[in-house]
Predict the 3D structure of the following.
Amino acid sequence: MKKSSCKKLLYSLIISFVIILSVGSVIIYKKLYSPLFDIDKTVYIYIDEKKDYHNLLLQLQTTAHIKNLRAFKQLAASLNYPSNMHTGRYAAKPETTLKEFLSILSNGIQTPVKLTFNNIRLKEDFARRISEELMFREDSLLNRLNDPDYCAQFGLDTNTVLCLFIPNTYEIYWNTGVDKFIRRMKREYDRFWTPERLSLAESIPITPIQASILASIVEEETAAAPEYPIVSGLYINRLKRGMPLQADPTVKYAVGDFTLRRILNVHVKTDSPYNTYLHKGLPPGPIRLPSVRGIDAVLNYSRHNYLYMCAKADFSGRHEFATNINAHNRNAYQYWVALNARKIY
């Protein structure tokens, strides 16, 4: 073969190799750097303590609508990822590439949950709400809240432990353990109770726990937030005079029925430390998770001489306030007539 022919063949092979290499590089580049998911908004992939790789693949298909599962499995295998999975909540965005997503998974780079809780009455409700947002089970948290020794380390008991949790929105990792979650909430509680708030509580005088318990009653008593400071002042007046609070929401809590629309004699006779018709002072714990607004309303209560309150006969959710029993009885009679007119017995 002539030298010129050999050179031509060599050049042809080199060119072919370059073309193949270029095409292969483009294919590999597209696999690694093209958007991996067929989605128009961020979705989340969850890996729990079982670290089930097959479940992950299923989520990638059904939740994230992965475009190239085969490429994902090949690269994951080359990185030995299936044997080194991390628990967590991982964001799959429309623009996320294969290389980016496997880097996120391999390094355990989570997107935190924005955890919001409020309007919760019972520990069971609270444990259920939190377990819906975080990895640990409902009973794991409930067991802690019902453990006297565990609660005692925070200066609380099983009745007051809900006061530890200040309703708000918190950023927290989905795979946070139950103990770490409670310690985080303790730090938020300490942060909430600033020197200013502590000083206001001391001036009443009540403890932060008592302020939370009273706030829980106030928030159950009225649906009108502007009334919070007024109702707080009324209850503080009664506490200072040694009068029983006679708060209907505590009776509902004692009976175990928050749907009661009319409190009867049979209800106020319910034998429970939460029944403030039978027992003076505050109940042993909150009857709901008090909000920041409710607690601040107690700390900044309205100064007045009201000792009595009764729901308005127009069923607006607001109240008539009175300084003496005679005026209160007149208000109560109007409400009694309104209840009968609506056949609420």
Summary: The chain has 15 helices and six strands. The longest helix spans residues 3-33. The longest strand covers residues 43-47.
